[in-house]
Amino acid sequence: MKKYFCKSCEDSLKDFNVTLNGLTDSQVKEQLKKYGENILTEKKKKSIYSVFLDQFKDLLVVILIAAAIISMATGNIESTLVILVVIIMNAILGTVQYVKAEQSLNSLKALSSPTAKVIRNSTKIEVPSKDVVPGDILLLEAGDLIVADGRILENFSLKVNESSLTGESESVDKHTETINKDEVALGDQKNMVFSSSLVTYGRATILVTNTGMNSELGKIATLMEETQEKKTPLQVSLDDFSKKLAIGVIIICAVVLGLNIYRGNTILDSLMFAVALAVAAIPEALSSIVTIVLAIGTQKMSKEHAIIKKLRAVEGLGCVSVICSDKTGTLTQNKMTVKSIFVDENLILSDNIDLTSSLTKFLINSSVLCNDSTSIDGNELGDPTEVALINLAHNHDIDEISYRNTYPRLSEIPFDSDRKLMSTLHSIDNDYVMITKGAIDVLLERTSKIETSNGIRTFTDEDKKKINEVNHQLSSNGLRVLAFGYKKLNAKKDLSLDDEKDFTFMGLISMIDPPREESKDAVRDCIKASIKPVMITGDHKITASAIAKEIGILRDGDIAVEGLELDKMSDSQLLEKLESISVYARVSPEHKIRIVKAWQSKNKIVAMTGDGVNDAPALKQANIGIAMGITGTEVSKDAASMILTDDNFATIVKSISNGRNIYSNIKNSIRFLLSGNTSGILAVLYSSLMALPIPFAAVHLLFINLLTDSLPAIAIGMEKSTKDVLRDKPRDVNESILTKSFIKSILLEGLLIAIFTMVSFHIGLYDGPVGTASTMAFATLCLARLFHGFNCRGKKSIFSLGVFNNKFSWIAFITGLVLLNAVLFIPNLQNLFEVTPLSSSNVIYIYLFAFAPTLIIQIYKIIRDISDKKNNHSSTSTDRNLSSNKHVA
Ligand code: ATP
C-alpha cells in the first residue's frame, strides 16, 4: 500500500490522475468498480435458519413441546399435531418479526448515515459517505465526521480528534507538508486524516487515498462487530416478567397436578390439566407485540421528521419534562434578512443603503470577504447569517465569487460558537487587512478605534454607550446584530487568536430571523403537558428574550440569564433559580452540560437539541439528545439519540406526544394480553378446584393466545395519538409498567371474563356432554377476548375514543371472528381443534356471555367519562372564577 504522508500533494494528485477540480463522473464510476463502496464489511449476519432455531430456545416453547408430548401420550395425536403446527408457526412469526425489525432498523440507520462534501466535475456536492472513492477531493470543516483516509492538500487551521484510532483524546493540529520518513506512527502522520476521526476546528481540502476496508479503520476492525440494538428498558423488564411468570406457572402447575392426582384422577388427565394451565398463563405474543409496536411507531415517527437512532429513546420521550432548545433554526425559521446597518454613527434601513458612502461600501464588501457562504441562482449554500449578508451584497450588484477572487483570503480564523468571532486576512490596496465579524459584546470589548467620515479616532466610552443603545433598540425587536471591525497588519501572516484585538470599529448589520409559525402552538402544547421549554442560544440576551416572549417561552415571572452570569452562579444558586430560568443567552456549548446536569439532579428527564461540534458532550449527557438533520454537524448527529429532519421545535413536541402514545399503546396491548391470560388461568384454576372437567384443551388456548389475541393486540398498538396524551404529566421514568392499579384492572377484567366463561361452561355441562361444555367455554373465552380488544384501546369508553377511529381493531375483530367460526363450524377443523357441533341456542349463549364483560366494562367507562367531564368542567369554571376574582382584586 502506498504511503501518501511521504508524497507531495502534487505527486499524490498525479497518482489518482485528478486535480483540485475533482474527479469526473466516469472516473468515479471506474474507481467505484475498482475499490467498491466506502463501507466496512460487517460481521456475517445471523442466518435466517439460526434465527428460526433460536425461537425454540424459549422456556415457554419448551413447556409447549412438553404439552405436545403429553398429548401424544394420551393418544391425542390431532392435538399433538396442532400444538406442533402452532409452535412452528410461532417460530416462523418470530423469525419474520426479527427480520422485519432488523430491516426497519437498517432503514433508519441508512436515513441517519453520514454524508460527505466532495468536489466532482468542478462543483461542490454532497454525497452519501458510501459513494466516496479514492481520488475524490473531500472538503472538511468543523463538525464533520471524516469518512475516508486522505492526504491534506489545503489546510486552514485544521484540528482533528483521532481518539477512535489512536486513543488520544486531545485534538491534533494538521499540516500539508510532506514528511520525509519511511515509517511514521499513525498519530504522527500530521498531513493525513483518517476515517472515523472528527474535525473539531478549521477546514481543509483532502485527497481521498483509501476507503472502506482499505482504510486504517478497516484494517483494525477487520470485521466490524455487528451493531445489535440493545433492548429497551421496557423490553428488559418484560423479559424479566416473562421469566418470573414462567417459574410461577411451573410452580402452580405442579400444585394443580398434585391436587388432581391426590383427588384420584389419572396421571395423564392430571397432566393435561397442568398443561392447559401452563398454556393459558403464558403470554406467547407479548414480546413480539412490544417489538412490533415499537418498530411501527419509529417508522411512523421517521415519516413525521423524527429519526429515532436508539429505540430506547421512544420510551424516554414519554418521560421528558424539560426541553432545552436552540433558538436559531429550531424555534426560528433560520431565514435571515438584513434589516438595517449602523455605520458612521447612523442607523440606515436596508432599503436606504447607499454605496456612494465609502464607509458603507467598506462594511458591505467586508461582509462578503469575511464570509464562507454563497448564493448562486437562488441556491444558498452556508450559514444563513452569512447568506443574509451575501443577499444584501447582491442587492447592490456585488458578486461574491468575483469579489473574493479579487481579494483572496490569505489566512483565517474560522467562526466558532465559543469565541463568537470570525476573522479573515486579505491584501487590499497594498495593505494586509484583517476583517473580523461577530457578536457585538465580544467585538466591542476588543475595539480600540472607530472609523467615521471624519477619519479614524480613539474608541471612547461615549461611542460604546451609543452603539450599545442602538444594539438595545434593534435587539428588543428580536433582531440579530453582528458587529464588524478591522485591523491593518504589517505583513502577511498566519492569523492566530492573539490577533483578534485592537480592532477599528466599522459598523453593525442587523437581521431578522422570524420565529417559526408552529413554535407558538408547540410551546403552548408543552406547557399544557407539564413540560418546561427552555431556550438556550448563543445569541444576545435582549434578542433572545424578545423572541422567547413572542413565542411564549419567557412568561411572567420567568428570567433570562447570560453565560457570564451563569459562570458566576454556584451550583446551589443555579438549582434555586433553575425552574424560573427560561432563556440562557450568550452561552457556549460547555454551559449546556451544566444546565442539563442541573435539571437531571432534580430528577427531570431532559431533551436537549444541538448542532455544533462542541454540542456532542451535552447531547450525550441529555436523556434524549436531539441533533438537527439539516444544519447539524455529523458529530452532533453521531452523539444524538434522535435526529430532526426538519430542525423544527414543533417536531420535538410531536415526537414526545408520539412517544407517550406509543408507550400507552404498548401498555394497553399488555393489559389486553395479560387480562385475557388471567381469564384463562382463573377458569382452569376454578375448574380444577371445583373438581370439574378440564374446560379447555391445550389447542384451544393456543388458538386464542397465538391467533385471535395477537391481532387485537397489534391493533391496539396502532391506536392513533390524540391531543389527550399531552394533557397528562410526563411519566415517572422509574415507574414500573406493572403498577398496582394496572395489575388490579388486569385482574378484575380477567375475573369478569372468567366468570362469564365459566357460566357458559356450566350451561354446557348442564345441557350435554363435556365436549359441548368445553367447546362453549372455549368459544366464549375466545370471543370475549376479541370483544375485550375494544375495551383496551384506551382509558375512555369506545364512544369517546370514536367507535371507528381505529380501523385495525375492526379488522382484527372480524378476522378473529371468522377464524373462530371456521374452527367451530368447518367439520375438518372441528376434529383438529377438539370442538363439538353446537346447537343454535348454545351459540346464542356464547355470544351473550362473551359480550357481557365488554358491556359491563363499557358502562363503567361511560359513567367515569361523564364524571371526569363534570370534574373538568367544574375545575375550569373554578379557574375562571379565580381569574375573574383576580381581575376584581
Ligand atoms: P443557537 O440559537 O442555535 O445557539 P446562534 O446562531 O444564536 O444559534 P451561535 O451560532 O453560537 O448561536 O452564534 C452566537 C453569536 O455569534 C451570534 O449571536 C452572532 O452574534 C455570532 N455569529 C453567528 N454566526 C456568525 C458567523 N458566521 N460569523 C461571525 N459571527 C457569528
Gyration radius, to the nearest Å? Answer: 35 Å
**Any idea what the shape is?**
elongated
Bound molecules: adenosine-5'-triphosphate
The helical percent reads: 40-55%
Describe the protein in words:
The chain is α+β, with helices and mostly antiparallel strands. Helices cover 51% and strands 17% of the residues. The protein has four domains: 158 residues, Calcium-transporting ATPase, cytoplasmic transduction domain A; 243 residues, Up-down Bundle (Calcium-transporting ATPase, transmembrane domain); 153 residues, Rossmann fold; 176 residues, 3-Layer(aba) Sandwich (Calcium-transporting ATPase, cytoplasmic domain N). The chain has 32 helices and 26 strands. Strand 14 and strand 15 form a beta hairpin. Helix 24 runs antiparallel to helix 26 and helix 28 packs parallel to helix 32. The C terminus is likely disordered. Bound molecules: adenosine-5'-triphosphate (ATP). It is a multi-pass membrane protein. This is Cation-translocating P-type ATPase. Its main location: membrane. Pfam families: Cation_ATPase, Cation_ATPase_C, Cation_ATPase_N, E1-E2_ATPase.
Ordered list of secondary-structure elements with their pairings:
Blueprint: H1 9-15, H2 25-35, H3 48-54, H4 59-73, H5 77-111, E1 115-120, E2 123-128, E3 137-141, E4 149-161, H6 163-166, E5 172-173, E6 192-193, E7 198-210, H7 216-220, H8 233-262, H9 267-281, H10 286-303, E8 306-308, H11 312-317, E9 322-326, E10 337-343, E11 346-349, H12 358-369, E12 374-376, E13 379-381, H13 384-395, H14 400-406, E14 409-413, E15 421-428, E16 431-439, H15 440-445, E17 447-452, E18 455-458, H16 461-475, E19 479-489, E20 503-512, H17 517-528, E21 532-536, H18 541-551, E22 559-562, H19 563-568, H20 571-577, E23 581-585, H21 589-601, E24 606-610, H22 616-621, E25 624-628, H23 634-639, E26 642-644, H24 649-689, H25 698-708, H26 710-717, H27 740-767, H28 770-791, H29 798-801, H30 807-825, H31 827-832, H32 840-888
Parallel strand pairs: 9-21, 9-24, 17-20, 21-23, 22-23, 24-25, 25-26
Antiparallel strand pairs: 1-2, 1-3, 3-7, 4-5, 4-6, 4-7, 8-26, 10-11, 10-20, 12-13, 14-15, 15-16, 16-19, 17-18, 19-20
The structure holds adenosine-5'-triphosphate.
Biased composition (Polar residues): 873-889
Subcellular location: Membrane
Domain Cation-transporting P-type ATPase N-terminal: 3-76
